[in-house]
Amino acid sequence: MGHAVGDVLGLAAAVAVSPLPVVALILVLATPRGRPNGILFAVGWLLGLSALGAIMLAVGGGGGASAHRHPATWVGALKLALGLLLTLFAVRQWRRRPRDPSQAQLPKWMAAIDRFTPVKVLGLGLLLSAANAKNAPLTIAAGASVSSAGIAVPQQIGALAIFVVIASLGVLAPLAVCLCMGERATTVLTGWRDWAVQHNVAVMAALFFVLGLKLLGDGIDALTS
Asked: Which residues contact 39 (CB under 8 A, 6 or more apart)?
């Protein structure tokens, strides 16, 4: 199990560094029902990562992801494809970055967050974890790595749980600040929000590029070993 956890730690850390979901949660926390809605957002986030990872474990188990304790060929091909996808995303993000970070703008849908119902807040957390252009490929790659590690199902579930917890630290941090600091949290969260908005594109481009190269390397290694 230790080997499986080691394989997904870097992927989990990359999911944790998610500026846009952090901004979305901070905006949710600023609404009149900030705390309960923030908890709903966090629940949606956790459910999204867990469900996507569990689906990948099921696919890996049924598809023979591990052959003689080595990743199957299709696992290597999947990582290669995901690595190529992330690398292309990195180039796209870098070309779209604002020349002046202070001119960075939030997506238009974020302006409506204060009108979201609890169900929509839950769905937002779910979508930003499981349907995010960065998080979805990384979670799929993590599930593939765990399912191909040649360990028992309970250990696979444990490794996936560790991935989900670590991958959620970045998004859960604003919620923890809000719950622990009360009114004083406003200043802290405003600073976090402004930094994340200004540097979102550059951070995402760098993460896409580094992780894309890592998955490309993992895929090539799995296919040639």
From this structure: 175
